Amino acid sequence: MTGLLAAATSAADKRAAFRAGLASDRIQRYPGAFNPLVAKLIQEIGFEGVYVSGAVLSAELGLPDIGLTTLTEVAGRGQQIARITDLPVLIDADTGFGEPMSAARTVTVLEDAGIAGCHLEDQVNPKRCGHLDGKAVVPTAEMVRRLRAAVSARRDPNFIVCARTDAAGIEGIDAAIERARAYADAGADLIFTEALTEAADFEKFRAAVSTPLLANMTEFGKSELLSASTLESIGYNAVIYPVSTLRLAMYAAETGLREIFQTGTQAKLLDRMQHRSRLYELLEYERYNEFDSDIFNFALERDQ
């Protein structure tokens, strides 16, 4: 029963698909998954990959996105998501969870978890959400050491090391571009241009940097919400929607809980709920039944 209990596609093949996607002329769309079930939905709908957001993982734990989560927590959640989907998974590795040696270990742990790539950022630790004010970035040379350590640690050359720069809102776009070039020289496969504000900023970055670029289309942040087709026409290679599914789910959950609290019943909410049959379809219940039948379909012979 290939692909039933876990993805049918190997981690190596997913990484190769991620690298090939970045080299294609089609933008790679990576919505965020806050759990493995959402990852299954992302795959079924037809997206190219799955993203695991550090901000979402923190929020799930009831914590702000200020660097409180650990490598163990992040890798564990990433592994749960990666093992259930045939799509490549890109994960947020914050600042690498410590010094350059820690960034190197982070890559090995994420590789072992079946992840296709991670991004490391140039913020000072403890970091903060990329669309908040008051961020600080480390010197370029320090981030270069972080990246070189990460790149040197990977065993699968197709594992994508993405460098995120938060410098645009602090030092300006020109400085962020210079950093991006230095990060690419250090071995970064992909540059994550965080908190650019409008299409012209994305165009300026694309014109100045030859490395594949990733855009963050998060809601309620500093960036104008550009469509995937617009980003593709600018020349961006990938786009993430990191918190969209969590925001949708939490809005629905809060609305429903308030209705139940006020009325004492969920009777009027049924048309806003995923039906049991749809959940079973997504979980492939019927295939599990087939699996059980094949394993346990036997009869005891009567004594002769």
Coarse structural class = alpha/beta
Total number of helices = 13
Counting copies of identical and different chains, the oligomeric state is single chain
**CATH 4th-level superfamily of the largest domain:** Phosphoenolpyruvate-binding domains
Proper CATH architecture of the largest domain: Alpha-Beta Barrel
Number of domains: 2
- Main-sheet strand order equals 1-8-7-6-5-4-3-2
Q: Biggest sheet, open or closed, and with what strands and sense?
A: 8 strands, parallel
- Mean pLDDT over the residues: 93
The total beta strand count reads 8
Features:
304 residues, alpha/beta, TIM Barrel, 13 helices
Characterise the protein shown here.
The chain has 2 domains: 11-242, Phosphoenolpyruvate-binding domains (TIM Barrel, Alpha-Beta Barrel); 251-292, no CATH class. 47% of the residues lie in helices and 11% in strands. It has helices at 11-23, 36-45, 54-60, 71-82, 100-112, 140-153, 168-171, 173-185, 199-208, 228-234, 244-263, 276-283, 285-296, and strands at residues 28-31, 50-52, 89-92, 117-121, 160-165, 190-193, 213-216, 238-241. Strands 1-8-7-6-5-4-3-2 form an 8-stranded parallel beta sheet. The longest helix has 20 residues, at 244-263. The chain is globular and about 55 Å long. The mean pLDDT is 93.
Entry summary:
The chain has 304 residues and is an alpha/beta fold. It is 47% helix and 11% strand. It has two domains: 11-242, Phosphoenolpyruvate-binding domains (TIM Barrel); 251-292, no CATH class.
